[in-house]
Records
---
Amino acid sequence: MLSLTIRDLRKDYPQKPRALDSLSLDLGPGVLGLLGPNGAGKSTLMRILATVARPTSGSVTWCGTDVLRSPNAVRTVLGYLPQDFGIYPNLTAVEFLEYLAAVRGLPAVAARRRIEELLVLVNLVDARKRPLGGYSGGMRQRVGVAQALLNDPKLLIVDEPTVGLDPEERVRFRELLLELSGERVVLLSTHIVSDVEAAASDIAIIAGGKLIARGDPTALVRQARERGAPEADARARSPLEAAYLFFARAARGAAA
Amino acid sequence: MSGARALCAIARADFLERVRRSSFLVTLAATGWLGWLVVRGQVTLRLGSYTGAVNDAWAGGLVAVTLSVIVSLAGFWVVKGSVERDRATRVGEILAATPLSKPAYTLGKLLSNFAVLSAIVVVLALAAPVLVFFQGEGMRLGVMFSPFLLIALPAMAVVAAFAVLFETFRPLSGGAGNVLWFFVWNGIVALPLTAGWPKADMTGLLVLYQSMGAAARASFPDYARDFSLTIAGLEENPARGTFVWNGIDWNAELIASRLAWFVIAGLIAVVAAFPFDRFDESGRRVRRPKAPGESETERVPATTGPLPRAHLTPLTSASPSFLELFRRVYRGELRLMLRGRPWWFWAVALGLLVAELLVPLEIARARILPFAWIWPIVLWSGMGSRETRDGTEDLVFSAPRPLALQLPAVYLAGVTIALAAGAGVGVRCLATLSPGAFAGWLAGALFVPALALALGAWSGASKPFEALYTVLWYIGPLQPTPALDFMGASDAGVAAAMPAVTALAAVGLLGMAVLGRRVRMNR
């Protein structure tokens, strides 16, 4: 059984507010949607789980293995799409993915087949032999999605994955996450409530580096109302968005 | 008026952005160290076999010469990069959408560059009174500090302007410009002194040389014309005598000739506005297949037909061996280094390789090999820093075993380039059974990429390697200085056991590279 356990995670940056504050989460197979306002600590959490940043304290365990001590245990099964990432402008999409497949330790033949399938999946077949420097922002993002899926990851961490994608691609990506989620742990971070609502049945709301609430959309709406949220919020497009706005406002108020 | 305000705003914001970076503290620390060497008497100015008695004028002159020689060279590398930063941070795009004119932008950058260099001048200038306090006499502030105001600062203004010009002229904005600056600087420093042409005396060295030379000649009539600055006690023979120099006799003409360099700096900055692309990336060259009539917007279609269904075959193959993976990562790294260079780059590299095979071996080692190993500097300078520069750190560092797999692959790719570029000399050393020369050549091929990797891994930038390697290359193999001949260019270097020293240095640098990468990964 796949599991990712986060315990009392804290991250301090010099001369900045605490990015993560005693955050604990348990993740199993399926999509966990991570919602939070800008600066909530979502990307910091993602980077720690992806082993590219170290926490100030706390622990992260992947299927019983301490990730902080043995980062390779998670790196071999990890697919990671950072919020901001670069490309090598003089390489084509195929060359870039071949390079990352080798870096990630994929067998050559399997990598080649996988790359062809991924290029079909992200709709870049016609542009596969063009240098990435000529790609639009949305196309680069699709290359990012492809590289995250290169190694058939058991743990998929995607940070604001739909930024730059057009509406059709966004819908397609959400469907893809649902298809992939059966036998994997997927962590989807975003501040777009509709994305998380469509792709995740389990949602965690964080603000100020702390876990504010967690549950399925219905449970979150109920929790918000139990804590005093109004029945309707004119600015919200769905009950979940209203609950999210309530929790975010409450967290801001508590911090102030 | 609004243009002037915009210019000042650009200069101010850019200056604040720079001085709040840790690299600025490193720059000031290096400047402080240089000042410390001055105070300890380890920076010496000689006129032939003679030197000046330490007084207020001499201390000011000594520090001004240090500024004109060292800071005018290194200062360029320190300040160059502000336009590129605006490009990388995308602030440039925001500026480009404002009414800001191109000359206002380049003049703003000139002011910002000049402010940074002026800070270095101020820090180093403090060494002059300290030197006098401990070792000399006299505290005429006007005499002591006038060389900073009228010699050093105008020179810094021109250096600041050249940095802007090199950045806005795209062929010189990268590593090629960093290397070229060394040769431009060489000409700027040497030309007025050798040709005695005061109009080209940007650094002000000729003004100081003529004034100090007259004082030296008055005390020692046998003094001819030598004028040299030595650092860190490299000068072995003590001075035969000291003379008293009371400073430059400033007159209106001399002051005007120095202040004119501020105007020239401004003109260079205005000229820099012409090639400036105003952050329009559409003109940038990206390698792609040619398609007649293809427009920029048609380059890559945004979407390509209906969206397909997802089908991903599960990966079931066994993990490949480390060697197989290493071979593929190595190939990828080599491709990253080699890709995107124009045809003439390879033509010159090939020409140098052919020359290595055709000219006598001694000439090939001493004259062709150094050029064959400076030409690929832009290929090496991305080593260890490419991930930072291109924003792929998170992708590469989250992969398994990045230290054991990717970093050695980068190094081996760099060594491959060195071996290929100097193959003519290597093969001939083997063919002529010259083990010493071959060892020197091989050690050089191991050392240069190790230096690039270590500096890149620690700094996350290519400039430190481009600057340091160019200076080392010039002083070591090209001069040649046997104690710094890291590529076996001279028999004297080989006899001084430099191949072994160089190989050991390469090992140490590789250790530094691993450490630097580890630090960067654990941030």
---
Amino acid sequence: MNLCMAATYDPDPRAPLGFRVPFNLESGEVIEKTLAALA
Amino acid sequence: MRKLGVWLPPQYDEGGDKRRFPVLYDLVGFTGSGLAHLNWKPFGDNVPERLARLTREEKMGPVIAVFPDCFTALGGNQYVKFIRNRKLRPTTSRARSCRSSTANSARLRAGTSRLFRQIIRWLRRHPARHEVRQDLGAVASHSGDAAFDFVYWADWRTRSMSLRVFRAPKRKPGAYDARAEAGRKGLAEGLDDGRIKRFLAHVWKKEKVSMKETMCS
């Protein structure tokens, strides 16, 4: 669900999979810049 | 080519070829397909049965209802691209030759869940776009989870743990510099370092996806 939502809310054709996730994949920290895309 | 469910009102064949009907596009949520709304439903009406009942009780006027299948490999429906590319409208009119109204005000979309709520958000941001003005008369969202950042915030740490299995290289036992590892290229921008791609490749090979994997995808 989370990846699907990320693809819907924060698409980026330049990203490896065409979207960004709202958290750091290594640490799980929320990324404030991408969070704005979800609000 | 995908199947497209279309429900025609009882009045469809009354009034001859000149009569036109509004079109209601029923857009479902995560892991759904419009075709699922045609299924048998316990203790209640499925969507076509509800439309038939409400039409008969004159609580709504007759409409043509369309149930598209927009399912994607990520488990959900990417409706913004769907609307932006204006894919449904010509497909519907060509494939079914329905007597649908050509008035902009007669094209309605109703949907559920967070994925559909993105349509509302996109429409509000782009009210002047040609496809918005040409294709939509009204939109209704039955979304219960309209605060994605709030609802799923707590979930993201769990998902990052789930995806760690697909990390490359694998983490080694012993000392671990978490700050340095989290600062690797692209991670702070939300970009995939390959683990999402490997996770999806793993899931797509499976015959049955677990609930945990579904929540992640």
